[in-house]
Each structure stands twice: as C-alpha cells, then as structure tokens.
Predict the 3D structure of the following.
Amino acid sequence: MAEEHAKVATAKDGEYASTYAFLITGDPQYLAEKSQVPSRLDPYSEQASSRFLEIVKHFPGTKIPETLGGGEVSQRILGVLVNGDLIDSADKTGGPHPAMQRFEWARFTTDYGLTGMDGGLPYPIYELHGNHDGPQGDTFIIDDIITRNKNRIGVVNRSENGLHYSWNWGPLHLVNLGIFVGEGNARRQDFHYSPRSSLEFLREDLIKHVGDSGRPIVLSFHLHPNCPSFDWPPEDLFNFWETISDYNVVALFHGHTHGDARRMQWNGKEFAAELRDGVDIFDPDDSSASKTDPKKPNQGIGLRHGFLYVELIDRPGIEDDQFIVRSYVSKDNWASHDWQDAWSKPIRVPDQLPNREIKDP
C-alpha cells in the first residue's frame, strides 16, 4: 500500500504539494568505559546519546520559527541518515578495545535500530561507516552493516560487496557511499583509507537507477570532500566530480568534521561559501561525540552537537519545487537545544518519474 505523503499548501495557487522529510546526523561515536568487560558508556557519551534519542524521537510536530520558514516538522519522517563514526573505538587495537567495540556497537544498534520498529528510534535508519568504525572497512562493524543492508527498508540497489546501497524516497534518489567515494577496494599507497569500491558502485547505480530521468539525487559519505589529500586522493575526487556533474545532484552530506552545522559549495575545482554552478555540501555536526576530558575528569569535551532536518517539496509542475535544509543544535550536550540556520533553494523535480511511491515497511 502506498504511503500518503504529507501535504503543504502552496502560497502561489492554493494547490497542494508532496513533502518528503528526513533527518541527517553523523558521528554518534558511542564510547564505552575503558574496561575489559565494559558495562556502561563514558558518562558524557551516555548523556549525549540518550538525550539526542529523546529529542529525535519526539521531533515530529516541533514548531519551526518564522525566521526559518515557519510551520512545523512533518509527522512523517521517512528515515535518519547517519554519516559514519557510529562508534569510537574500532580504529584502535589491543587492550580493552575489542571489548569496548562490541559494547559500543551493541548500544548503537539497540538505540538506533534498523527498520523503525526494532530499536529506540521510530524511523528507518540508513547508516554508513567512518574511520572510527574501521579505517580500511574490514572490521566486524562493516560486516554487520553489510548484513543490515539486506534488511534495510526500501533499498533498491546494493554494491557487489554489499556495503554501499541506494534507495528512493518518492522522486528523490539517495546513495550511501561509505567512508569516501573512491575507486578500488583497497587503500592506495601513501593514502589513509580504503574506499571499498564506492565509486564503481556510484557509477553503476546512477546509470541504472537515474539515467537521463532528471531525478534529484542526494549522496552521503563520511569524509568532507575538501579534506587533506592523503584522506581523499585527488584522483578519486576528480573522478567523483566527473561522475556526478551531469546529474541532478541537489546535495552532498558528510560527517567527520564536527563543529557547527554548515554548508559550503563545490564546482569540481574549488570550495567556497557560494559558487556559480556549485553543488551544496552539508555538515550536520555530530549527534553525541562527547567524552570525559582526560585532563579534567569532572568535565566533558565535545559538548556541541547538531543534526539536519531536510525537506524536498514537490509542487505541481517543475518551476516551484524546493529543497530545504535546517539545522537543529545544542551547545551543552543536548541539555538545551534549538533551531539555528536554514538553507533553501529551488530544484527541478520532473513530473513523470517511475517508482515514486513510498511503500509501507
């Protein structure tokens, strides 16, 4: 049975539009106590993650300030994208770290769930891996993501290795691409991370599931594209741009950098706040990457957090469609929280697209 989309009135002509709403965050970085048999998280990690979950769980219906467009958060959140560094310890070996990794991963999968009916959040979850989950994409966490991908809601395509995947929300095509977008399975000499053949998957996926349809596209990965070249090889970055430049890519989302939620643009040659023909790149901040300050045991560090609320508004015709990204932030480990910024732009959503329905789980 097709899910009925939320409706919003257009001020222009009184007709109605379909709104596709979802959340994006990154870097939960669940951190266990340093023990061979951990039984709890670091207290600041516990505080941040539990508060974040409660906020997000009750986010539908939240009022949006008039300065950021007004209205309220959709009652139909389609899902949550989680852009890597799901736990903190899988880039470390020896000592208590293997036990910490298992504890942290169990908490993430329990707290976030997968389908929206099996965990702490009532929305489908769409995670990818970051460097803290395994820099070379070869840990048990990556194996579990591959297994989770087989049961993830709405997936229309999975990579040959099972790690990368894509899905559609109405007219929007979304692709999760792991730690960064690059060619080949293994780490190249003199570079940090393994791309696990994410670029090959992206090329194949866009040809097969978008083609010349003009369907709007959202791409997600962990590293920021303007990161140091030893993290994201220049050859891969060039080939990534060449792959997407002829498609209707409306936004790129990443994690890794923490800090306030923000937007920049990229035109394949440079990064800046505003660029002609630039693609928007968004950093959602992190959801809960907090921990006890090792120099001051009674204080925490990493207490600023955030996530993004995203809406694609598909109005009749192709002239008035809209893509809106709003940030929701905290400066004190989610003890207090509020809206911060909004970015809105017109986009083109073709009227005739196949497979626009969103099916019930």
